[in-house]
Amino acid sequence: MAYVSYSRQDGPSEADQWADLNWRIPRPETPPPAQDAKVSAGAAWRAARVGMDAYRAYTESGDSARLDAAIEAFKRALAGRAGDTPQFSHVNNLANALVDRFELRREALIAEHESDRAEPRHGDDDIRAALKDHAARISARTKDLDEALVCAQWAVWARPDDSPDAARGLTTLCRVQRQRKASGMFQYSWRGPQPQSVDLRLAVMPSAPLADRVAALRRVSRSKPGFRIAFETIVKTLPRTLAWIGPQGNRRQPARETADALDDLIGLALYDDNPTRAMELFEAGRGVLWDRIVGHSAPNVVRAKAAAVARRMDRAADCLDEHGGAADLRHMAEPRRRESRERRADARLRRRRARQQKIWDAMSSRAHAVLRAEAKRHDTGKPEATFLVPDYARDILPAAAEGPVVCVWRRDYKILAFVVQEGHDAPRVLELGHSWRFDKDMEEYLLAIGDVSSETREQTVRKTLEQFYPMFRKLPWNLFGQDYDPGDDPRRIWWCPSGLLATLPLHALASFAQNADDSDSREPVKEVRGAGARDRWLPGESARRRMATSTCLLDVMTSSYTPTVRSLVWAREARDAKAATAGANESHQPNMLLVTADQDSGLESLPGSAGVRKQIQKLVPPNRLTLLSGKEASARRVLRAFDHHEAVHFDCHSFRDPHNPWRSGLVLHDRPLTVEDLVDRSADRLDFAYLAACATALTDAQLPDEMITLAATLHYTGCPNVIGTLTPSTDRSTARVTRNLYSGLISADGRVDPEECVRLLHAAVSAERTRLPDHPTAWSPFIHIGI
Q1: Which of 45, 126, 684, 782 has minimal Cβ neighbours within 10 Å of its Cβ?
Q2: What pTM, to 2 d.p., does this model score?
């Protein structure tokens, strides 16, 4: 974490020096707008409270009279006997209120202008009256923005250093400058910081909220001096925002604006032609909640191994992240002395923040040393916890050791793919296509898959799969077209989708037309930036023939999914560590756990599931099979059984809580087995899990990047191979796919071979597609998560 200086610095004297990130605005020459009559300090603070009440009423009702009352109250507050320097909160609140009134009047003027165009004027007197009225309105609008600009300058001058108040003042100044420039009233001759310089200063200020800092940097040109410095400064402060949550933080309630800010940062990295940093930021924003909850996060490891270091980092994080001033100090309640006391308290706060920043830097180094030492001692495959932004070469590239990883991301109307592949030192960014109606189409798709009884469900699913297939059908040409023989099995690929794309069965995208035009599939995907060791290849004739005749991605790729790229690396490390110690206990025999639906639960008993249970009981010897059904299928017994079995098959009904994904679960005898239950239980012993229920791998649309599902939970807690479903499926199709899977997965002696589950699942799904090619709900839901 870079140390941020809080010392005062003199501002430059020339306007062209405002690009310096450490500039300080000079004392404004124009006094802030205030009433002529002076009032006492106590009356000024009472007027400020009245103004805040009126402004709050305006935001709730939209009444312009309340806004005018708030502005007059703020001006009375500025007339307090507090010396030549105005109170920061008064001028800052007044500046925002003036901008609000300007925007309100501008909307009214636009509406009246539209009505005037409908009724043209013909007389000279009418035209002169219209011009005079228009000039008066322009003058009123200019006055509001001029006063707002003066107030914003005073606010920034009153708080020149890094503090929450200074961030608020800079945000206000940015807002005023944007409005003046958009309205054509910006005074370019004004000798002061230009808009992009103010945005740069706000972007490098740690006290400002992350969303405001990223939004400010988006408005800065890439060629502007300081752009890359500001970008890397924001990236350095991400770990404290994302990973290190102090005692006051809520670990299960991520801020939506944080996810949006990360998307903006990824876009800025691509805008700066830096795909490696874009991929690192993409991975940093995924699975943040899981890193905190499951125990893979740095705070958990540091608190367990170096409690004193963790306590000091907690205090530093709470101080650096707080956005309040010093209003909680006891002596601040005296209105007459509030001005001088608050100035002293603000200086004390800045000194305290500077000390805590130094403590954070020192403790971060010590904590990272603890994490490295702990990672060396780890022999169970647990990840190396870190609160740093993932490093591409160390944390992401190893995931492509057994096949390419395709991270799908949507920005505005573009759908992009970050390809992590061996032989390439940096990720390749592929532009797959445009989706102009993405949000609307995905809304229709999610509504359709949730309503099983709907007559249009099958039609909507087919439409969605066929709509996205042209974008992704070109992807195999860039992944494994070289040296690819049509007689080979489909190559392995791992999907890591983000956003609403995580709800789509990307592996099953297909064209359902009888005579599909495949001419567009013979061209490679447009590569935004090619960064790799290989040159562009030309696929052979056999590969072209194989791919040109394909109408579904299942024909050319064997797909798996991973919630995060790092979780794939961690799962493989766990697998290798377990294989290294497999011969230590030769007397142990692998066992399988079968959890069946409760006959007394009142839910429908499915005949296809009964056939699957009989097949498992026939293939697995009784001494290696544990059957929990009826009253025995309780949540407590199922969780305890995880410690003694290597494979588990859940034959239960499931449900999803649309408001709280942590409470989604499987229906058992006594109570549901929820995601919260699985989070608190380790699944390191399990090698394979099959969740034969509806939508056990469908992520929540509100938190798609977290993958809070039953299948993802088992993967995060230690199970390397999990099979689930993205959408509800029919009983017969589920039974056929499951029987075909287990017929090859379970050997003659009753052992389950998890390494073959991906190939066998692909074969079973392909067979179901051959049986029902025009009914994708029968074969598209089944996915594999893990290695």
Answers
A1: 126
A2: 0.78
